[in-house]
Amino acid sequence: MKQPEDIIHEYYADQPELEQILLTHSRQVAEHALKCLEKHPELRLDEVFVREAAMLHDIGILHCDAPGIKCFGTEPYLRHGQIGGEMLRQEGLPRHARVAERHTGTGLPGWEPRSLAEILICYADKFYSKSHLDHVRTPEEVEASLARFGQDGVERFRKWHRIFG
Length: 165
Description:
- By secondary structure, the protein is mainly alpha-helical.
- It has helices at 4-12, 16-39, 47-56, 80-90, 94-102, 116-125, 139-147, 151-164, and strands at 65-66, 71-72, 128-129, 132-136.
- Strands 1-2 form a two-stranded antiparallel sheet. Strands 3-4 form a two-stranded antiparallel sheet.
- The termini are far apart.
């Protein structure tokens, strides 16, 4: 497999600002996920896959309309996971595609993370925003952000925090 950074560069080469935002965010998520694995070796997850999938989980933002983070596509931002999944399947990466598809929020209805690796990356992603790259959210900030969409997501995050936190 090509390195995740190389795959990202192939799609984002003509949008260097957006590429830098994506790389910074993705590295933050990957590092957080890997730190969780260091604290919890009993989880026995494939660290290489976790890093790769965390780096690629937001690749679909390229095609979305989110000018605040330099995304000037036409699709609604909520679709970036499904779009990323399609892109990663075209790259021959179906497991990575499932992570991209299932990471939004704590999982969109019908698209919830199922494997422990999917859940870990979804969890780690909640601590970082592409619009505030220099800030790491606290668990309380994550909960407040998720609460806007209902209590189910907050409860799911709390359960994940007991596993990975």
